[in-house]
Design a protein that fits this description.
- The chain has 98 residues and is mainly α.
- The protein has one domain (11-95).
- 64% of the residues lie in helices and 0% in strands.
- It has helices at 11-20, 29-37, 46-58, 65-95.
- Helix 3 packs across helix 4.
């Protein structure tokens, strides 16, 4: 149950992984999904994959192309917000002596 990937949909494993905040969708499938729906010019980082996996795993309906594109855009927006927040935090840490 501690593995980073699941090959089968066993309900108890899904519940445990959700409680622990681990992705349910196998990590090896996220890059394949991204390759299908996002242009090759888009730089996708491991953090993008992590955010996208979390969003896709919380999706409760059928995954359509529109849903995946929407989650891709949302993952990108979330990633950019995290980067901006980290930059602001670093700037504040420089101003405040520890």
């Amino acid at each position: 149950m501690e593995s980073e990937e699941i090959a089968v949909d066993i309900p108890i494993i899904v519940i445990v992984r959700k409680i622990r905040g681990l992705p349910i969708l196998a990590a090896k499938w996220i890059p394949a999904i991204c390759a299908l729906f996002f242009p090759a010019t888009v730089s996708i980082t491991p953090r993008h994959y992590q955010i996208l996996a979390g969003l896709l795993n919380n999706h409760e309906d059928v995954l359509t192309e529109e849903a995946i594109r929407f989650y891709g855009q949302l993952a990108d927006k979330t990633y950019r917000q995290q980067i901006a927040f980290e930059a602001e935090l670093a700037a504040l840490r420089k101003k405040i002596p520890v």
